[in-house]
Amino acid sequence: MRIRLSARTALGLFIAMTVVVVALAAWWIVFMAQLTDEKVEMAESLGADDEYVEAMHQQEIRRQIMLGMEGVFFLLLFLFGAWLIYRSLVADEERKRQQQNFLMAVTHELKTPLASLNIYLDTLRSAKISPEKKDKALPRMKQDILRLEKLVDDILEAGRLDRQEYRLANEPVSLSELVTECLNDLANRPLDVPLQVNRDLVNGAMITGDRRAIKRAVTAVLDNAAKYHDGKRAELDVALEVGDGRVVLTVTDGGIGFSRRDAEAIFDRFYRVGSEMTRKYAGSGLGLYLCREIVRAHGGDVTAESRGAGMGSTFTLTFVARQKYENSTTG
Amino acid sequence: MRTVLLVEDDINLADGLTMNLEAEGYQVVTVSDGGQVLDVFRDGMFDLILMDIMLPGVDGLTLCKRIRQEGHTLPILFITAKDSTDEKIEGLLAGGDDYITKPFEVSELLARVQGIFRRQAWLGSETGGTERYEFDGRWIDYQTFEAEGPGGKFALSRKECMVARYLIEREGQVVSRDQLLDAVWGYHIYPTTRTVDNFILKLRKIFENDPKSPVFFKTIRGVGYSFRGE
Q: SS3 of B53, please?
């Protein structure tokens, strides 16, 4: 039989068990104290001399302290164990919620462009629709196909990471050229608001790695910054600098930002801010996860900061510069 | 010309649907944000709402419930990627009239829309000189979608009203669940007859003294339901 507990039930059980154990411990201490008093009273009533009674009293107190300490130790051990179980249940629930969110997001992301493609196919076949209107269908269909292609690509890539089948090439990559290429791609993608990019890119920033994978990581961060705009326009500051053996790409946007809690989870697989039922932005919750895994696989790291919801965000990708990388790998 | 309020956040899908609906002679007003739907709805005169369930701002189910709570009975057709049985029932119980899952053909959507208008015409058709049916001190009004039973006066949804009218018009006859599904929800087969059962439960709560021992809306075991007004 499989027992399912929600986080709330688990918390309730945890609190109830803690109360019971603390109450039992308190009762035990009171009981021991009473027992000691009774023993002392009995010795006195039997006419034992004061010295003997006092010695017995002290011995009983020492025994009580010893038993009390043991009790406290086991109580703490129990509470620690119960807390670990509770934490694991909460994490399990959160994982389930994320997977559910992911399933909803993927279902929506797969079926919506498919529905759109179906409708535009019908539109092209319809005799009731004018040729001018039909002309709009093909570019829309191309957009839908690209959207599906990206989603399928992300899912396959995440699957490869899960199965540890991710093989990275080890080639010189000009991050300066790659970031410029990604920015040009971004400029050519349709956005629902005007896009403005302020570039400050150093020339000749070289790293070692898999060009295709790094492009995916950089694209994920740029797409993310452009997508979560403030509703009026998407303004991005993109800076690339080299120093101290590292190449650092910083992408700052003036978009919706995120809370401190989201900052910790934003790179988790399937994580999406908010509920899928009231989704505002397309996506599957895999982009930033893939970004982090790729950057880490290259010996680098990625961080995200925001001053809070509505305050924009900054994503920083740090790579090992090619010179230093070669030095460190050659010894 | 009939006016459709299309609530869909995907621009491509919304534009494609608009093109096809306009070609069929409907006037289309599009809203992409769930948070704006109620304002647009209150400002306009619409004959039908086509609505996605997953929407930015406020989701489609919540919007549907709010529209019904305000007493509006216009038909609502959900267009959504969610396709499990429970999700479909949830949509119908929220007050939706029909449900189409993505991806779909334009012809199927148009058939559903026409079906909704056809059933709407049936509900609004002549009822033998009366729009109000009275039985044993209770009554139901097919025009205002109101009813009164032992517990007081209630507002009915369009579907609840249609289920009640279908059974009342066949007083004394046994009506199968499939017959009710066909007549009230349309030509397409719903995945489960639980949908009908939920609506009958609601009618019993309104009209029966003891919904657990129904006198008017009786279950005919293994077949369906039968209405007896006396």
A: coil
